[in-house]
Amino acid sequence: MRHIYFLAFLAFIGFACNSGPENPADKIFINGTIYTVDESNPKVEAVAVKDGMIQAIGSSAEIQELAGENTEVVDLEGKTMTPGFIESHAHLMGIGYNKLELDLMYVKTYDELVEKVAEAVAKAKPGDWITGRGWHQDKWIEKPEKMVKGFQTNEPLNAVSPDNPVFLRHASGHASFANSKALELAGIANLKGERPGEVEGGEIITDELGNPTGVLTERASSLVARLVPEETPERAEEALTLALQELVEKGITSFHDAGSGQGVIDLVQKFKDEGKLTVRQYIMLTGRQPELLEEWYKKGPMIDTEDHLLTVRSIKLNCDGALGPRGAWLLEDYADRPGHRGHETLPMSVVTEVSEKALPLGFQVCSHAIGDRANQEILDRYEAAFTKFPDATDHRFRIEHAQHLHPDDIPRFGELGVIAAMQAIHLSSDRPWAIDRLGKKRIIDGAYVWQKLFQTGARICNGTDAPVEPVDPIPSFYASVTRKTLEGLPEGGYEGDQKMTREQALKSYTLDGAYAEFEEDFKGSIEVGKAADFTVFDQNIMEVPEDEILKTQVAMTVMGGQVVFKK
């Protein structure tokens, strides 16, 4: 009898082993250090994925029980996993085109810039345009001998490119640098009293004789930019392919594109239809095309509730310039340029008009504002619109950058529910020279004030503003928690009381980024029922010494349960 029971027991065990779990996972990730950004269950070892969604989380032993015959097992080998990083403010096509043009982001001197242009001219045909982006005079290790209003002049550029027009965008995107050939084609080769340097919403920088130096700030850049040949569809596809590859290599699973036209939306849709969209896209309609906005007002937001790959439900307005070219709109004069307060690059009446049209239609408004005057004016207009449409309570209007605020306006972010879409890396890059623009008091009181904003109940979503900065989130995470330059200076960081905790920084790059696009119930944290979007790092960014953070590499990027990048 015992023999019969034993055989029956063996048969039962065999049946149990062969049957496996009732609902096996498609893929499991085990043996990791996994930060969920879920306060109720902040850290686990393993995750199970089914149909692109998170099926279960827990210990490696628990999750292995969901492994069936066809389940793919990914051993993280102790690496650190977080929710997929969300880039909350950057320029998709700019990242791609930056790889097809002269990349001046890492140029250290004006002479080096001129050398790069000379190399490009040698490969070009006479008359071909030489274009590029990324130069920033305040980041050069040495300044040229001749400077006008804080900028270089174009004589050396003219010498190496007499026959090819040159147009080089500033890293900030709020100024440009052209040679005499390009200025001649634009009809501004010599002003000498014929036309003022000031143009509406911008400035043509001129020397003491009235000659243009080649530097155009804010909207003045369009005088030359409109002459640059338009991109071809083939080149646009190449740029988008390069941009998507860059994003997955840097651990980005979702991307907020800060202002594009219908052409970009259609191209991204094409990539989606062809199965080539490896990063979720949240595209803001550019406010520079009023006719485009009118078309979208008629048809309403496009919210992707099926696969969450492409949503268009927000509008980007460019309301002032940047601190670097002294285009940010200030309440008081620039400390290093008395009598100058920057530029209102968009009439504030437009902010009122767009806000009041957008609210009842369900569109979010995202306004670029760097200077304290611009931030104040936009908050005023947002508040008026909210008062006019009190039923539109979940608006999630944003201010992009919110870099320099008047102390009186800081509490208004929390009170009004306005999201501060900030890029911590700008602190590392700009703070060493920003104090020259604003002076010490304005810096301390209202520049990059992350903790002051958190204390009002405001949400901060993080990013890089690429291609203004590289799209890599690790330097921005480092800047968030250290407030140092990427060289590790100064000791203790700039205005150290405003540092984010590592938990705040991680949330700003994940769950708060998802909130900023109305997707916090779908992604942004590692919870059952949410999208299986993950970033895997080769070391623990939450625990390593701060001087080790910048050495971190992305080991794997997972979007919708699919590995889209593996190192």
UniProtKB/TrEMBL annotation:
GO terms for molecular function: hydrolase activity, acting on carbon-nitrogen (but not peptide) bonds. It comes from the Bacteria. SUPFAM superfamilies: Composite domain of metallo-dependent hydrolases, Metallo-dependent hydrolases. The keyword Hydrolase applies. Residues 72-565 form the Amidohydrolase domain. Keywords: Hydrolase. Pfam families: Amidohydro_3. This is Amidohydrolase. It comes from Algoriphagus formosus.
